[in-house]
Design a protein that fits this description.
Layout lengths: L1 H14 L5 E5 L19 H10 L4 E3 L5 E3 L2 E11 L4 E10 L13 H11 L12 E8 L2 E9 L6 H16 L5 H5 L2 H6 L7 E10 L4 E8 L13 E5 L6 H6 L5 E3 L3 H14 L2 E16 L9 H10 L2 H7 L4 E2 L7 H5 L11 H11 L16 E8 L2 H14 L4 E8 L1 H10 L7 E6 L8 H7 L3 E14 L32
Parallel strand pairs: 1-10, 1-11, 14-15, 14-16
Antiparallel strand pairs: 2-3, 4-5, 5-7, 6-7, 8-9, 9-10, 11-17, 12-16, 12-17, 13-17
Helix pairs in contact: 9-12
Length: about 500
């Protein structure tokens, strides 16, 4: 009798074995409000990895960075016009996939699609992505029509470029929400997000009261329109400081650390070489880092000062400060130098020559110090986001530029305010902008192309780094998450988890 009791307990334990659950650490900054998961505003990249599990898009990226249909069953160009001044106009019709349902059981229609895309056009942080869209309408329940318009003087194949560019915008930022849900109490829509994605929002709650850390819990959407997916029953996102990774991974409580900072990744990588508790990996992605001139800078109206700055930036040193997570752009990666050759000069690092140019600029025709420059330095303001890696790069730039004659003031903004400034191109108060392009350079948005056209220097290209658990621990305390033996994030866009084994 006793034996049967324990046998029953053992069988129940096996049934409850959480092999369909993975836990992901996605950034050390804890989420403080569900508004940070607002589907139509850009905040931190790691939060997009969560949004992508809840909401679908019309198009999506495959593992090679190509776009393919998702909620859009098919799209085609019904009208194309190009005038002598390179004004291109496209009318694009999309057939919405029928039989797709939101997490609350309501069927998706083209009205939801039109509402979502038009809402993005008024976004504080993403509206510039949709400058190429004139309007979006839903003629019937399963069709949506986009009118695209853009002036393309420097594009070789305007029709193909605009069509592909817009599909990439839809894949990257075009999360589809339920229109009536957002037209009602928007606070409710944000607190309890509803999409058509592979996972539905289950809960946001504290998991470590001592650390005050929270987690986002997502559960399998059993009615997902991709019938064979998702393969996981539950997906948990935790916001872990680097000090907690080792123990969590070693005990099997953590499957994946995604997007750690360069410094944290290097520290863990060094530790792991001696203990072999995880697999550290990285993948080069479309992430080009620039130091750009502000068009409003009085200092950099001077060609001499621009040349001096380009000569004084040591890209190799900046890349090394980020360890193995960054590399110097070379070859085809130097895209901006090809598209804007007069704006992005590839000059040899020469601080001595740069210092001479700055000193020459600081003197008038009579070889006397110019007014306002008596200390021998030019004060410049640099705009950076409040993120660890960018702040590290900004500090390195300050160290490099000071001996040359530039006194750098670092102006850091929160990620949201930084993205708002980029969206509006509000650069009036800055001389330099530290800027990241995280998309295929061949299909840059009009806003990004315009920002890059101001000129500057390409600093480096960044890798997406991650840490995979190798734990196969079996014990009475059963591991909380399964190991991810195969995981390859995309080269562009947020990460997908629904097809993870």
């Amino acid at each position: 009798m006793v034996f049967n009791f324990f046998l029953l307990v053992s069988l129940l334990g096996n049934l409850a074995h959480p092999w369909g659950r993975i836990v992901v650490s996605t950034g050390s900054r804890d989420i403080v409000s569900m508004w940070q998961l607002e589907p139509h505003e850009k905040t931190f990249p790691h939060l997009d990895d969560i949004r992508r599990q809840i909401y679908d898009t019309l198009y999506e990226f495959d593992e090679k960075g190509n776009v393919k249909e998702s909620l859009a069953e098919s799209c085609n160009i019904s009208s194309y016009n190009e005038d002598i001044e390179n004004n291109v106009k496209i009318i694009m019709n999309c057939r919405i996939r029928p039989g797709v349902f939101f997490h609350d059981g309501v069927e998706l229609t083209s009205r939801d699609v039109a509402f979502s895309i038009n809402r993005l056009k008024t976004s504080k942080t993403l509206s510039s992505y949709f400058d190429i869209m004139e309007n979006c309408v839903a003629p019937n329940n399963y069709s949506v029509t986009f009118t695209l318009k853009y002036k393309t003087p420097d594009v070789i194949s305007p029709k193909e470029w605009l069509y592909e560019r817009f599909k990439r915008i839809l894949a990257k930022t075009g999360y589809i929400v339920r229109a009536r849900y957002f037209e009602g109490n928007i606070n409710w829509a944000i607190e309890y997000p509803v999409g058509t994605g592979p996972f539905y929002f289950q809960d946001w709650k504290i998991w470590d009261r001592d650390e005050g850390r929270s987690q986002i819990i997502l559960s399998k959407n059993k009615s997902y329109w991709k019938k064979e997916y998702p393969k996981l029953d539950q997906l948990i996102f935790r916001f872990l400081p680097s000090a907690m990774w080792s123990e969590q991974i070693k005990k099997g409580f953590l499957s994946l650390v995604l997007r750690p900072t360069a410094m944290d990744y290097e520290l863990f990588n060094t530790l792991n070489k001696n203990h072999d508790i995880a697999k550290t990996s990285k993948r080069l992605m479309f992430s080009y880092q620039y130091l750009l001139f502000s068009p409003y800078s009085k200092n950099f109206q001077s060609r001499d000062l621009k040349r001096a700055l380009l000569n004084s930036v040591d890209r190799v040193s900046i890349s090394k400060s980020l360890g193995s997570t960054a590399m110097i752009n070379s070859g085809r990666a130097l895209y901006a130098s090809i598209v804007f050759p007069e704006k992005f000069h590839l000059l040899k690092y020469s601080p001595k020559e740069a210092r001479e140019e700055v000193m020459y600029y600081l003197k008038d025709k009579k070889n006397k110090p110019k007014a306002g420059y008596k200390k021998g330095y030019i004060n410049i303001n640099i705009l950076v986001p409040d993120r660890a890696e960018e702040l590290l790069v900004a500090e390195e730039l300050r160290r490099q530029l000071y001996p040359v004659g530039f006194s750098v003031k670092i102006n850091k903004l929160s990620s949201e305010n930084y993205n708002i400034a980029l969206n509006k191109k509000a650069f009036n108060d800055y001389d330099l902008i530290l800027y990241s392009v995280d998309e295929n350079p061949n299909y840059l948005t009009p806003n990004v192309r315009d920002i890059l056209s101001y000129g500057g220097v390409q600093l480096y290209q960044r890798s997406l780094t991650y840490i995979l658990s190798m734990s196969d621990t079996e014990s009475s305390m059963e591991p909380y998450s399964i190991p991810l033996t195969e995981f390859m994030p995309p080269v562009e866009g947020p990460v997908y988890f629904f097809d993870t084994e």
